């Protein structure tokens, strides 16, 4: 079992209660104690977990490791901005006036906001950047979950196992990813994965917004497999990914 798959299983185990024991990890990962220790050490150094007696837990508010991995929002917002704006416009065109939607925090999903004006939608988002972008839209109703504010991305995330979402039904979830490959969509942080899984479980349709630089295979925690994604909105599609996405039944929308 490769490292990315082991990280995915660790994230899934943690998402249930916020804690996983070494004994449970040995059963889930079919790996040696030394390999598991190396995995946990790496995840702790990246701020994704806290190692405790008997196992590991997700970091809580006030703990030194309460930070997210990946590129900080202020840096990411300037990367491939023209493509992200085109993707945001194309994604907003998929929204039906008056419907409820979920928008996960991210620099690409943020670009949807100007194009939602006048649609009379109800938006559930964990991103304060998105909240701020929607505040001037009188017809847009905004809902936010409870949880801890992570300043690197300016998003609100709850501890694993904590029910933080309002009672809200949304036909569509718009979300981003750090990378997308044949194995699925990936994020750089296990805390993000747990939060996004809760959103995916509430959505009828998962719409992934990624610019073409995100089509790559890399080590990371898998958020969802390709067959869990209904639509991908992107600026360009690599030739080798077209048959892979078609085989998984994923619709592709190219932003003009």
UniProtKB/TrEMBL annotation:
It comes from the Bacteria. Keywords: DNA-binding, Transcription, Transcription regulation. PROSITE patterns: HTH_DEOR_1, HTH_DEOR_2. InterPro entries: Carb_Metab_HTH_regulators (IPR050313), DeoR-like_C (IPR014036), DeoR_HTH (IPR001034), NagB/RpiA_transferase-like (IPR037171), Tscrpt_reg_HTH_DeoR_CS (IPR018356), WH-like_DNA-bd_sf (IPR036388), WH_DNA-bd_sf (IPR036390). It holds the Pfam family HTH_DeoR. GO terms for molecular function: DNA binding; DNA-binding transcription factor activity. SMART domains: DeoRC (SM01134), HTH_DEOR (SM00420). Residues 3-58 form the HTH deoR-type domain. This is DeoR/GlpR transcriptional regulator. It comes from Novosphingobium aerophilum.
């Amino acid at each position: 079992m490769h490292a990315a798959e082991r990280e995915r299983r660790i994230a899934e185990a943690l998402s249930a209660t916020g804690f996983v024991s070494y004994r449970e990890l040995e059963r889930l990962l079919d790996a040696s104690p030394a390999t598991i220790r190396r995995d946990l050490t790496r995840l702790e150094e990246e701020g994704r977990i806290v190692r405790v007696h008997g196992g590991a837990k997700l970091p809580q508010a006030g703990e030194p490791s309460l930070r997210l991995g990946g590129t900080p929002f202020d840096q990411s917002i300037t990367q491939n901005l023209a493509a992200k704006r085109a993707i945001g416009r194309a994604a907003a065109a998929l929204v039906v006036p008056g419907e409820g939607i979920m928008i996960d925090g991210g620099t690409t999903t943020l670009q949807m906001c100007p194009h939602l004006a006048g649609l009379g939608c109800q938006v559930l988002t964990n991103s304060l950047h998105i909240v701020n972008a929607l505040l001037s839209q009188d017809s847009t109703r905004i809902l936010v979950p409870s949880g801890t504010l992570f300043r690197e991305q300016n998003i609100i995330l709850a501890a694993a196992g904590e029910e933080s979402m309002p009672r809200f039904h949304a036909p569509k979830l718009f979300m981003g990813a750090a990378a997308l490959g044949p194995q699925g969509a990936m994020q750089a942080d296990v805390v993000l994965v747990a939060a996004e899984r809760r959103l995916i479980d509430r959505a009828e349709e998962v719409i992934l917004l990624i610019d073409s630089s995100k089509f790559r295979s890399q080590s990371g925690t898998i958020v969802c497999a390709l067959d869990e994604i209904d639509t991908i909105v992107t600026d360009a599609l690599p030739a080798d990914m077209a048959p892979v996405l078609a085989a998984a039944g994923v619709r592709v929308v190219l932003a003009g």
